[in-house]
Structure formats: C-alpha cells, structure tokens
Design a protein that fits this description.
The complex is a heterodimer of chains A (about 525) and B (about 130). With about 525 residues, chain A is an alpha/beta fold. Chain A has 23 helices and twelve strands.
Chain lengths: ~525, ~130
C-alpha cells in the first residue's frame, strides 16, 4: 500500500490477501462499508454473536476430541474429562469405523482403535456412553463417511436408555464434501454422498429435531491449504449444497436450518481469525435470510465449534504448542464461539495423554475464570481495525462464493477435483514461504534450537485391545438374530436403490445389531465407491 | 543429462490414513525439481503399491503416513518389495514418524525417513544424490 511506503514501514498482507494498514481510524471503517453490519448481539445480522448475552449467560461448551482403543477404553477417558470439568464430548473414531470397515475386516488390521474408538455395532455405543448423562453432556460424533450409521446408532442407544429422541441434543460432523477436499474418510461417490447427508438432515428434522445432524467444516479445508476467507466461504458453499438437497425434497428452510452447525479452525493471525468469525456470522445470516428466505432467527445463526488449530502446531519444540494453544483459545473466545476444543500440545505426535488433555481444559478454564473473557459480549467490537477487517473479509468471502458458483458450484468443483487442486497448490506455496523464511513460524524457520527436543509420551497401539474388539464383535454376531439382520440389510439396499430416505432402514438395521461394515457394504452395492480424481 | 530418462518417483498413501496435504505438497516439489512423479491417491494396500512401483518402473518408492500405522504397513510391504525384485529402488517415507520407530524402519530397509517439518529441498537433494 502506498500508505505503508509513506509511513516508511514494510508492507503487511494477511493470509486472506488483505493488505494491513499501520493505523486504522474512522475513515478506514467508512471506506470498508461502515458499521451497518455490526448490529447488536442476538439480533440480525448477528455479527456480534448469536445470543444477546453470550458467555455472560453461559460460557462456551468445552469439548476435547477424545477416543481410542475399544469402547471401554474410551468410556474411561470420557469420564476422566467430565470429572475435570469438560461439558461436552467430542468422539474420535478409528479409521476403519470412519470409512465403514468392521474391526475384523482384513483392511482394518493394525488400525483398530489406533486413532480413535473402534465401533462395529450398537453394542459399542452402549458401552462407550455407559454411565454418561446424555441430557447433561451433549455428544458430538466426529464421523463422516459412515455418519448416517453413527447417527442411527446414537439415536438407537439413547432411545434404548429411555431418552426421548425428539428432545435429544447432540451433533454429528457428517460433512462429506469437505472429506473429499481434506481428511479423506469418504466411502461413496460425491453425488450419493450428498444425498445421504440430505437423508440425515431430513430424518433428524422429523424424528430428532433438536439433534444437529451436520457440522459443516471449514476446519479441514483450512488444514489442507485454504486461506481463512476460503475456509469460511467454501464451508458456506457446502452448507448451501446440503440445504439445496433437502429443499429440493420439499423441506422448508426453517424446518432444518436451525440445526445446521459449523466447525472452524483457529490457527494464524489473531485479528484475521476474529474478523473471520465476525464476518462469517453476518454473511451466513444474510445468505439464509436473503437467499433462502429464512424467517426464524435460529435458521440464520452461525452456530459453531471454533477449535483445534492443529495446522498451526509444530513438531519442533512441542511444549511451545501449549502457548500457541492458549492463544488459539483466546481467539476462539474473542470470536464468540458456542463450543471450543483445543489440540493438545502433543497432538502433532500422538493421541493426547490424560495430562495434556487436562492442560487443554485448564487453558480454556483460565479464560473463563481468571481472564474475564466471559464478562462482556464481543469485546473487540468497535475497534477501527477489527471492524474494517471484518467488512473486508466478508466482501472477500462473498467474492469467493460467487467464484465457486460461477464455476459450476461446489459439488461439481469437488467432483472434478478443482477445489482440491487449488487448495493443495496453496499448501505448496505456503510450505515454500515457510522454507524461504518469508512466512515466519517460531521454532521452524526462526528461533530454532539444536538441543534435544522435549520428549513426548507416546500412546501405545494396543494389539490385545484390538483383538478383544474383534472377539467382542464376533460374540455380537453369534448372539443376534441373523434373519432379522439379513432382512434389515436387504431393506437398506432396497431403499438406497429406490432413492428414498435410507435412514429409517439404517436405524432398523442398527437396532438389529447389523455392523458398520455390513450396512456400508449394502450401500456400496447400490452407490458404488468413490474414485479419487488425481489432479494437480 | 537431457537424453537421460527422468527419475520416476512414486508417492503413495498407505493404509487408511486420509491426511494427503503433505503428500501432495511433496508431489509438487518433486515435479518442480524435474522428477516424473506418480501419485497414487489415498488408501493403498501394500499389494497395490508394489504393483504400481513395478508397472511404472519407478526409481523411488515413497510413502506418506500420518496416522501411526507406518510400522505394520512397512512390515507387510517389505516381503512384497523383495518378491518383486524392487530392493534396488530407493524406499523412503515421510510424515508423522516418531524417532523411536526410525531404527526398525531402517532395519526393514527404508533408505530415508523424512518426519513432518522436513524441508522439501532435503527430500529432493537426497533423491538426486542417491539415484543420480
């Protein structure tokens, strides 16, 4: 910027491509669009927050990502976290479960319970949530490719325990489009995958209207190389694709939009992230109101978990990640998130220990109890810088959304690999900037140390636990009514083939103790499997 | 040099791990360095990786693993590499590979281990030096 040259300082451009001025004042705010979109907390366009009193009324939900081994191991970790003040659960599943393989599948060998909890049948959900009050502790299921089955298992488990499913709260990640861009736990081709997400939204709107069936994730797109504005813009494109899918079936926007939620990332420049969340809240409200004709305020709310930050953590000097995590928590609190989760400092290496998971909880609790982050709503509002940046980032998000729409929409762009190629090109460019020293990473390209790095305690892979899971599932298979399972799987296949909503058939199959792998194969029989486009 | 065939490098994603950001970054770096790069995409079995390595006549077999299953996977891959007579190829791995596993990986025959955070030039230089 010429202003930079005039002031004799080096130019600064944030990751979203917006030049940052050395000083902001009323003129910059006015030039960026003024304060028109700010409004009051709890009022349209919700830039300052979706609730009038935000954390003054109730702090964010603390929901550390947890799960490993078999369901009994995970149940013990859940109870440990709850005993330490955690207020929600965020379930990690192992990779076989996430891509629809049973623990005894040959492809699952060496992966059972490794990066999350192994689940094969409803029995595993019963064990995992045993003794946990599902009204006090809401549960978020981090699963996508096999999310429809996991949702069915969760609802069936809750119903069996006597909860009224019509009142049950909880969330499933269930955002398959972002899995094709990053994270990679897809199963079916793109179009039937989107159809399946539509089935879960439609089913929950009717049967479990308090349940949030989808948490649209900018998070992993950012991890894959997207800028903060792309992270949010692509997430909105994806949410619109799911909304279009169910509106085409005749649902009214206000019947389901209030239960859509989001998952965003935290790493990077603090002010850029805070502006991202404020900008996104206003933009999403405007999209829902003006583009979709939503009338209920809840349909316009950008409800979210703002957490993680994994992409910002470093293998180098891992204990510095504790400090990074604290700043990420601050970003999250300043953004007005509903839920927070932090990557633990050892998470770049391994599954967090109890100690490191507790440290993450304490990090959030410090903000609540000591730092005054819950005293007043949206404390950065009115800052010339933050309001200008919020306006500029909102405009940039709108530009990106228009670009995706003009190129055929997000579903087509994911199907042909264009978004993936674009984002991975940026990841490469960023890696080169880090290696050249142009983009600074503490401990990576500056302030390096040669001393022995801080040792991290590794979470061991439990071979015996994996075998125990295989044995347990064999017992379930032996005890269940085989004819009922076969009939239920036929019904899944039939409904998938007929193009009707497969959720009722999946729920019936799950209740008959059909396994994740069996139900997935029934769907694959009809939908086929995704073939990844290799495009650079 | 210009008459020589380009070095052919296979970048494969073993097992069920879905983290492909790093693998794709390495693919671009190797291609920019002038290598011919074959990228498999996600979810490759040991059998599939060896088949591609053989059919594409690669000089380097590269794996990218971030979800912790590198040891069991490489234990399965080793006999297949031997059976196909591919032991003269460079065999390298990158990703989330803890230091405590390096010795066993080297015993299995890995020529180099590039943990997360390795500079791209380090990988390129290693391949150039070892497969001139």
């Amino acid at each position: 910027m010429s202003a930079d040259k005039r002031d004799g300082v080096r130019p600064v451009v944030n990751e979203s491509g917006i030049p940052i001025a050395p000083i902001y004042g009323p003129d910059e705010v006015a030039a960026s669009g003024g304060l028109e979109m700010v409004g009051a907390p709890g009022e349209y366009p919700f830039t300052r927050g979706i609730h009038p009193q935000m954390y003054r009324k109730r702090p964010w939900t603390m929901r550390q990502y947890a799960g490993f081994g078999n369901p009994a191991d995970t149940n013990a970790r859940f109870k440990y976290l709850i005993a330490n003040g955690q207020t929600g659960l965020n379930v990690a599943f192992d990779l076989p479960t996430q891509i629809g393989l049973d623990s005894d599948d040959p492809l699952a060998e060496g992966e059972v319970g490794r990066v999350g909890m192994a689940v094969d049948t409803l029995r595993d959900f019963e064990i995992a949530f045993d003794g946990i009050d599902l009204e006090q502790i809401t549960v978020s299921l981090t699963i996508n490719g096999s999310a429809a089955i996991a949702i069915a298992m969760y609802l069936a488990m809750a119903e069996k325990r006597g909860y009224d499913v019509a009142k049950l709260r909880g969330t499933a990640q269930n955002d398959i489009l972002k899995e094709f861009i990053g994270r990679g736990t897809w199963v079916f081709p793109v179009r039937p995958s989107v159809k399946l997400v539509g089935d879960t939204i439609e089913y929950c709107a009717k049967v479990a209207p308090k349940y949030s069936p989808v948490s649209v994730c900018g998070y992993h797109i950012r991890e894959s190389g997207a800028t903060p504005t792309q992270e949010m813009a692509y997430a909105f494109c994806i949410a619109r694709a799911y909304a279009d899918e169910v509106i085409a079936r005749g649902l009214a926007v206000d019947e389901f939009a209030g239960r859509l939620s989001y998952n965003f990332n935290l790493f990077g420049n603090l002010f850029e992230q805070v502006a991202k969340f404020r900008a996104g809240r206003g933009l999403w409200a405007r999209i829902m109101k003006e583009e979709y004709g939503a009338t209920r305020p809840g349909s316009m709310w950008l409800r979210m978990i703002a957490g993680g930050g994994g992409g910002g953590l470093t293998l180098e000097q891992p204990e510095v990640n504790i400090v990074r995590g604290a700043y990420y928590a601050l970003i999250s609190a300043l953004s007005g998130t509903q839920t927070m989760a932090l990557c633990s400092y050892d998470e770049a290496y391994t599954i967090p220990t109890e100690y490191s998971a507790r440290l993450s909880l304490r990090t959030m609790q410090l903000l609540i109890e000591e730092m005054g982050l819950c005293d007043t709503v949206d404390p950065l509002a009115g800052s010339y810088y933050v309001e200008t940046l919020t306006n500029q980032m909102r405009a940039e998000m709108e530009r990106i959304i228009a670009e995706v729409d003009a190129a055929g929409g997000i579903v087509a762009q994911v199907e042909d690999g264009a978004i993936q190629a674009h984002v991975s090109r940026q990841a490469y460019d960023m890696q080169r900037r880090i290696e050249s020293g142009d983009f600074r990473k503490v401990g990576v390209n500056c302030y390096r140390v040669d001393e022995q790095e801080h040792e991290v305690e590794f979470h061991p892979y439990d071979e015996a636990g994996a075998q125990a899971q295989v044995d347990a599932t064999a017992r379930v298979r032996a005890e269940r009514d085989g004819a009922a399972v076969a009939a239920a799987l036929d019904a899944v296949r039939r409904d998938a083939g007929a193009g009707v909503n497969v959720m009722p058939a999946i729920v019936t199959a799950v209740k008959a103790y059909a396994s994740v792998g069996e139900i997935t194969r029934a769907l694959v029989d009809v939908y086929g499997r995704y073939q990844e486009p290799i495009r650079f | 040099m210009s008459n020589q065939r380009k070095l052919r490098v296979l970048v494969a994603k073993p097992g069920l791990d879905g983290h492909d950001q790093g693998a794709k970054v390495v693919v671009r770096a190797l291609a920019d360095a002038g290598f011919e790069v074959i990228y498999t995409g996600l979810r490759q079995t040991p059998e599939a990786i060896v088949a591609v390595a053989r059919d594409e006549d690669v000089d380097v077999i590269g794996l990218s693993s971030l979800a912790g299953s590198h040891l069991p996977f490489c234990r399965k891959l080793k006999p297949l590499i031997e059976a196909e007579g591919l032991t003269d190829k460079l065999w390298i791995i990158g990703g989330n590979i803890p230091r405590q596993d390096h010795a066993e990986l080297r015993d299995l025959g890995l020529d180099a281990i590039f943990p997360t955070g390795t500079r791209l030039t380090t990988i390129v230089d290693f391949i150039r030096e070892r497969q001139p």
